[in-house]
Design goal:
- This protein has about 220 residues and is an alpha+beta fold.
- Helices cover about 35% and strands about 30% of the residues.
- It has helices at about 1-20, 25-30, 40-50, 60-70, 145-150, 155-170, 190-195; strands at about 70-80, 85-90, 90-100, 105-115, 120-130, 135, 170-175, 180-185, 205-210, 215-220.
- The strands form two sheets. It has a six-stranded antiparallel beta sheet with strand order 1-2-3-4-5-6.
- Helix 2 (about 25-30) runs antiparallel to helix 3.
- The longest helix is centred in the N-terminal third of the chain and has 19 residues, at about 1-20.
């Protein structure tokens, strides 16, 4: 009986330790550094999770904001696919998702898009999550050099200055709710009207490859 008791305790301890770092997307929302989520404190984020974890639409989000007086709430939460979208007192939105690595670790992405008048990438942060800790991963280690891919080679020098300004300032992204790839779009209407002939497209699929992204199809889209 004594051995059986010890065995039961051991199973309980091992079970607890194995689930200690089992995280879903809402846990990541609470756990990532404040700086990547609009400087919201963990207390504020915990409240957002508690009140809006079941939201699936803008209508759901609006109802929660009015009822509880929140500044921010989830427009949608998809725990199964590891994705959420936050809206509220900002011109734009915040998206989060994560990718499972072959090593067993997870890569967490936090994307903040601002608008006014056009939309652009405010911040995009990546964190490696392992053993309960978040380690910032440099952007250049994950993302491909899109500049080298979207241009017709002979136009590169002519395009460089425009790329440094309008191209970067108008870039937006869509983190995956389904699948693993990121969609990137760039270029204001004025920029595209002037530079379209020098480009291969205004949108690209970035293909997930276990810890980094490769440039996939580049194409024209509205």
């Amino acid at each position: 009986m004594y051995k059986n008791c010890l065995f039961s305790i051991l199973i309980l301890v091992l079970g607890s330790s194995s689930s200690l770092f089992a995280q879903n997307i809402m846990d990541f929302f609470i756990g990532v550094p404040d700086s990547s989520v609009l400087t919201l404190s963990r207390i504020e984020r915990t409240k957002i999770v508690s009140l809006s974890k079941n939201n699936r639409t803008v209508k759901d989000a609006t109802a929660i904001i009015k009822k509880h007086g929140l500044n921010y709430t989830f427009e949608s939460v998809d725990v199964k696919n590891g994705y959420l979208k936050l809206i509220g007192a900002m011109e734009g939105h915040l998206e989060m998702c994560y990718w499972n690595l072959q090593s067993g670790k997870k890569l967490v992405g936090v994307y903040h898009e601002s608008c006014g008048p056009g939309c652009f990438t405010e911040t995009l942060n990546f964190y490696l999550f392992s053993a309960g800790k978040y380690t910032s991963v440099p952007f250049e280690k994950i993302f491909p050099d899109l500049y080298e891919k979207i241009l017709w080679v002979h136009q590169k020098d002519d395009f460089y200055m425009a790329y440094q300004t309008d191209f970067k300032e108008s870039m937006t992204m869509k983190l995956p709710q389904k699948g693993k790839n990121i969609v990137v779009k760039w270029g204001s209407d004025e920029f595209l009207a002037e530079n379209r002939q020098k480009m291969k497209g205004n949108q690209a699929n970035l293909l997930w490859r276990d810890g980094k992204f490769l440039t996939g199809e580049i194409y024209w889209a509205k």
